[in-house]
Amino acid sequence: MLKIDSKDCMIAMTDFTAWSLEIQRRTEQTLDHLLPPTNIAPERLHDAMRYAVLGGGKRVRALLAHAAGALCAADANKLDIAASAVEMIHAYSLVHDDMPCMDDDDLRRGKPSCHKQYDDATALLVGDALQTLAFQTLATAEQRLDFTAEQQLKMLSTLAIASGSRGMAGGQAIDLASVGKELTQLELEYMHIHKTGALIRASALLGAYCAEQEDLAKIAAIHQYSEAIGLAFQVVDDILDTEADTATLGKTAGKDADSNKPTYVTILGITRAKALANELHENALAALQPFGDEASRLRQLALFIMQRSF
Amino acid sequence: MLKIDSKDCMIAMTDFTAWSLEIQRRTEQTLDHLLPPTNIAPERLHDAMRYAVLGGGKRVRALLAHAAGALCAADANKLDIAASAVEMIHAYSLVHDDMPCMDDDDLRRGKPSCHKQYDDATALLVGDALQTLAFQTLATAEQRLDFTAEQQLKMLSTLAIASGSRGMAGGQAIDLASVGKELTQLELEYMHIHKTGALIRASALLGAYCAEQEDLAKIAAIHQYSEAIGLAFQVVDDILDTEADTATLGKTAGKDADSNKPTYVTILGITRAKALANELHENALAALQPFGDEASRLRQLALFIMQRSF
User: Fold this and answer.
1) In chain B, which residue's Cα lies nearest the Cα of A164?
2) Sign of the C-alpha dihedral, residues A153, A78, A228, B38?
């Protein structure tokens, strides 16, 4: 377990809480602005898109974009665009993952999932249109802010590669194929690096790419940090799925174990899973070691991700 | 009915057939190159993506990109990239539209539709990953060819706007909401302008944007042409759905009428529907009137779209 002075830690986390609330507020406001209004046709689709995106979630990916952006001294208004795009991709993936032909989950963020609140066809189109809107947001970002075309292209290609068949969507396919199978820790890691890790890394990188100047040492650190923290996030998720109840999670607890999906807890046991999470946390912090206060948001965010569970 | 000298027409169409076969071959080859190989994980997803995209279809959108590109003297290798991106978006929309929660169609291009050949979850991910790959292709196009970043962004934003909730996905939502309803011709037109028209127009525009220099008069003509031909395409589709059999169509005939969907034939009757298709054809040709031989591919393509049915 990492040794962190508890008083320093408390002060840091109070400051982090205020910061994260502010980022969540900004992200919500930007998304509200970018999503089509419900008085424009097709009204029901737009209503469902807003239902799926707004008013919930910890916005971990938006926090990551902003924290990585802070390390690179990027403009906060630009970071809002990057953060909104990754949150749209995340929201689309949740809507499709919850559908009956995938994980068949009725609950999301404490509310009926999109296909339960609307219908399957609408949920399918909501996911499709949210993915498109994420790319549209980045492709038209210069109309709002002073991005260079090269910056936009870098964000677009990074987000696309992270979301596609060699990233998030591919990870979901591997996840589906693994139901009922015995996986090794390596195979499980491979699945998660794609299913959740790729988008988490892209979130941090998009934040870095919002900066005026590219600092290769910082980008390398963000790579290492976000790979470690992306995997830690998933290990913590598996621990939460075992230990927390449905009310706390806002989604159906024990779902993965019930559906016979391999998790870090089923493969390693709870004690070794927690030790792995701590080890990944240390790796993430090690990547930030060369940097001072400018990396403090990333350090706090790592701690926040760890403290979700224990 | 348009008066076209039948001998001239035959020569033109023989030339067009050779050209379109060549574009289809190039498009197939480019798509084959851009799609992930089946020996890379996740293998089954990549296999299904290739199944959904390769080896079929008239590639009308690729032909449009190349024909509009010919008007603007764009490089054919660049046009292959634009054509492949729009064909990927089209293929993703077919995979999702065929799913049980949407149109529930078992047959596509004379083969089992993607969810019948694989399964619903795979088909969902295939559509998702194909959409992503379309944007990835445009965002990374400069790695293959000498695109400017501004050209790429223009193609990306045009394709995204045409595909999203105010374009293709929105049109599909309006279509679903219209089942069992009596629509006016105006309401039906509104639906089709979004559902199929937006992507058809984007296909032609992406072709134009591949050119070194933007010619505003030509782009305005391509706008007018592609709006007319996009709608004509749909009217012809409705006529085909009534008159052709399943073997000819490669998809289930009479499906729209059976599922109580409004079509141009149910609203106007077959005679007036054919007259409307001819009128739209004339509008498309009128847009090309200021241009000479450089517009001949677009003229031939308009005729080809009309001749699909009668």
Assistant:
1) B129
2) negative
